């Protein structure tokens, strides 16, 4: 079952989280222990990275903490910070560097945060502060006095019908333009790649849901796939004839592959005969999409938006689109497809004639 993939991923996340928490002060571990009941392992791990960034910033920029090991800090340090300190940290997050050690050699990595990354990191810090403030372990919460970064609305990038057809055609026949090793690699992976892209375009599932599929999760009797949604809920998503054909073609190729131990159940194999990962699918989609359009940055998530747009255009049922895409809140779906509603309203303006045109 696909659950084995997700269980393994959760285990890896927990192990990474434990490794990070070893360098945290004891009071900080209480927060992450309390998160276990309500947050996914991936979310808790992301919060741990974000809080670690905050701690490192304090150690490098706060004179009082500069010579003290992070593990020795007491919760009182949170009370000692002001709204100005938090504002300065928010400014720091736009562009910053972190010194890491690689095989004993210092290495400086640079990071930047756009609107979404900045808001996520500040949300993590606000949640961190709220935990101790609610429990009266601290007496102030300066994060509430700092404005959260605003997210500006961005137009949704999606593919039109011509681009979708061109992408699938290129995956199927684009190898004619290649030679040598590139040609051999293309021939080896094209049936798999076509199946993955067709599945993403034909169902709107997330790339993480796609790579988590086991071969037994595909039900050709009902043309449905059993997936584990974001958050751990289970769902069945149905597919049409084009997806069915692409999957059946790939399964014939899959029969010729001997997977490595532990990967036998995976639906999609990498060239290393392991379960494909999210990054591999993202790179594959970008590779093909660059050959079709240079004006749009196409990712697996954009294929999901393309499917959602097509489904909404055909049905006009925003609740159906939300359900199929696995959105917990229909307002998320409405926000994404509001532009299409506006287009429909504009067409409605000219649909009713008040007087006959006698000209």
How would you explain this protein's 3D organization?
With 359 residues, the protein is mainly alpha-helical. The chain folds into two domains: 143 residues, DNA polymerase, domain 1; 176 residues, Orthogonal Bundle (hpI Integrase, Chain A). It is 55% helix and 8% strand. Helix 1 packs parallel to helix 3. The relative contact order is 0.08.
Key descriptive features of the protein:
359 residues, mainly alpha, DNA polymerase, domain 1, hpI Integrase, Chain A, 2 domains, two-stranded antiparallel ribbon, 5 strands, 55% helix, globular
Radius of gyration: 25 Å
Strand content: 5-15%
Question: Oligomerization state of this entry?
Answer: single chain
Residue share in helix: 40-55%
Element layout with pairings:
Blueprint: H1 3-21, H2 26-35, H3 41-61, H4 76-79, H5 83-92, E1 95-102, E2 105-112, H6 115-134, H7 161-173, H8 180-203, H9 207-211, E3 218-219, E4 224-228, E5 234-238, H10 241-254, H11 278-290, H12 300-315, H13 318-325, H14 330-349
């Amino acid at each position: 079952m696909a659950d084995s993939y997700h269980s393994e991923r959760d285990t890896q996340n927990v192990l990474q989280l434990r490794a990070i928490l070893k360098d945290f002060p004891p009071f900080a571990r209480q927060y992450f222990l309390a998160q276990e009941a309500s947050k996914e392992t991936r979310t808790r791990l992301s919060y741990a990275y974000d809080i670690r960034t905050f701690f490192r910033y304090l150690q490098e920029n706060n004179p009082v903490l500069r010579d003290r090991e992070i593990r020795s800090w007491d919760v009182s340090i949170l009370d000692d910070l002001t709204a100005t300190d938090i504002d300065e940290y928010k400014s720091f997050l736009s562009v910053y560097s972190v010194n890491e050690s690689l095989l004993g050699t210092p290495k400086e990595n640079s990071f930047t945060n756009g609107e979404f990354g900045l808001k996520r990191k500040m949300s993590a810090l606000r949640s961190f502060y709220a935990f101790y403030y609610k429990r009266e372990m601290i007496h102030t919460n300066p994060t509430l006095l700092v404005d959260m970064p605003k997210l500006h609305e961005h137009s949704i990038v999606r593919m039109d019908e011509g681009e979708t057809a061109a992408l699938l055609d290129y995956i199927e026949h684009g190898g004619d333009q290649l030679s040598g090793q590139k040609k051999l690699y293309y021939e080896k992976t094209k049936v798999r790649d076509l199946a993955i892209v067709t599945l993403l375009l034909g169902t709107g599932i997330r790339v993480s849901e796609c790579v988590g599929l086991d071969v037994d999760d595909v039900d050709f009797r009902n043309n449905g796939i059993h997936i584990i949604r974001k958050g751990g809920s289970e769902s069945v998503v149905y597919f049409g004839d084009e997806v069915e054909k692409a999957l059946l073609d790939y399964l014939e190729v899959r029969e010729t592959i001997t997977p490595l131990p532990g990967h036998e159940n995976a639906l999609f194999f990498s060239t290393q005969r392991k379960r494909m990962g999210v990054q591999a699918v993202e790179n594959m989609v970008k590779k093909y999409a660059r050959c079709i359009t240079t004006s749009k940055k196409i990712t697996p998530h954009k294929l999901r938006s393309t499917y959602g747009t097509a489904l909404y255009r055909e049905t006009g049922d925003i609740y159906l689109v939300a359900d199929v895409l696995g959105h917990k809140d229909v307002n998320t779906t409405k926000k994404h497809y509001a532009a299409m509603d506006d287009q429909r309203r504009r067409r409605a303006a000219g649909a009713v004639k008040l007087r006959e045109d006698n000209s």
